[in-house]
Each structure stands twice: as structure tokens, then as C-alpha cells.
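I wish you would study the pair of lines that follows with an eye to the fold:

===
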Amino acid sequence: MKAIRVAEYGDLNSLSYDEVPIPELQENEVLIDIEIAGVNFIDIYMRNGLYANSQTYAQSLPMTLGMEGAGVIKALGKGVRNLNLGDRVAYCTELGSYAECAKVAAWKIIPVPEDIPLDIATALMLQGSTAHYLSHSLFPIGPRHRCLIHAASGGVGQLLVQLAKARGAKVFALVGSQEKADLAKVNGADYTILYKKENFAELVLELTKGEGVHVVYDSIGKMTIADSLRATKKRGTCVNYGAASGPVEAISPLALAEAGSVFFTRPHLADYISTREERLMRSSDLFEFYRKGKLRVNIDRILPLIKTTEAHQIMEAGETKGKLLLKNRQASSA
């Protein structure tokens, strides 16, 4: 089968389009014919070595990239229950989706209803689950809350804006262009801020009469975290869940105190979908939001697997306006 592999950590040149054996199933694993794979920043962190020492997302070289996908079940390992050959399924947080086939732990598999297209299901796995846990679990947003969302026109950002608005929050959307600001407005953002033209911390403080927001969702990292803390209200929460501009190396506890006794966290999605029940809960919520028209899922573009290098280049350049997907094979049931 064809797969996108990394033999050494590095830049775009480390990606290779290889012929590899179909994975052999172990007990309680499922083999999936992957039709759609999602492209996420975690794939870039895997490729460039940022997560090389991660225990949460353990890996070893050489490896097949890709942390989410959707398709149909091709084979079942010993001990698998309640899943059948030919089932439409999706999953996330298991390496190997940048390939024509992938083996996945059965407990991570999410059945995909017939009325949910596989590209939508894929988009709602990793990025959808991220937006869900950020808004429903890490900081359960309510009607009296104000939130600042970085990269509000990206894959997670668009979903997070909509989920925050659905829960009654006032949303400040941080974007890089007027086109992206217009997109954030369509998704319900109350205020849009062009970070290249305006100091977002100062503007947020001005708009909130010096109070700041109850929660900041910062996926950018190194370049923005200081101002994210400034924009957070006293005893508010600053969430750094990504590193698009580079990782945040350290934050002084005293700096958090001086920022207004702010709570700071750097979460992993895996800790918020650590059981099958939690995965099913989040995916069920997201599918229902989509089904009822309460959640728009914007597919930016779908590229063939062989163009994965181009996909990573687009994502690293910040050019996405929604979900970026790979087409691994011709659809058999979607």
C-alpha cells in the first residue's frame, strides 16, 4: 500500500511517498481502508520532532504520519466486538492515517452514521473534539463569558467560534486578514481583530473596559502568549493548545500572578478523550450539531495523498480557511 513516511525528523523534505506492507493486526485492533485523512498541526509536530519525546503521543522512526482518518473496516483483530466488516468509521489520535490502510485500537473507533459524509466525520474527529473539550470541559463556556479565540478562521478556530456562540459566550476572534475576519463573522464572532494591524491585547482590554476575557484559546504559542496573558481577566484562564509560531518554553509562576492570578494550562486532546465513552460523547454531540445545522464544517480543500508535502506547506504558511484533508483512495461508500 502507499503511505507518507518520515525516516528522520525534519522539514518538508523529510516526507516520502512509499510503498509499505499492510499493517498486521494485533488483538483488539481494526484495519481500516482509509478514504479520507485529516491534516493537523500535530502531524507537523510529529514530522519536525517537536513531539519526539512525547509519552502521550509516543512514536518511533520510521513512521507513517497522520492522526485522524475515516473509511470502512477491512479486517477485525481477535477480540473486537460490536464492529463489523464494511462499517463506516472514523477515529483520531492514532498514528498512521496518511496511508491507504491503517490499524487502529478498536476502542478509538467511532461509527459514522449514514447521514454524515466521511469528510465531515474526519473534520469532526481531532479538530472537532479539540473544539468540544476546550469549550465544554476545560473551560465550560456559559452565557456570561467572554472568550478570545486565536486562528479563528482555521479548522479548530471555526468550530470553536460556533460552539462558544452556541453556549452563549461573547466571542473575540483573532484573524490574519479581512477575508478571514469575514469568515469569523459568518460563524458568529462578535468582534474580529486583525492581529497584523492591531495589538490584540490592547484592543481586547479597550473593548472590555479594562477587564479582559474570561478565557483565551491560544493555538499560536511563542509569538502571542505574552499578550494572551495580558488579555485574560483577573483569575481568568489562558489555554495554550498549539504552537503554530513555536512552542512556549516557559512561563514564570510570578508572571501568572502579575497577570492577575491567571490560570495557565497546556492541554493534550488525548487526556480529554481518554475513554471510549468520552470519545463517543464528543462525537455524538458534534454529529448532532452538524445534523441540526448548528455547526458549519468548512472543508478548505482536499488533496490527493501524494500531495501531502503541499498540504503541510499550506498549513505551516497559515493559508487554511477550514479543514485540510487528504484523499487516500476512491470512496467506496461515502
Remarks:
- The chain has a mean pLDDT of 95.
- Residues 2-124+297-327 form a domain with the Quinone Oxidoreductase; Chain A, domain 1 fold (CATH 3.90.180.10).
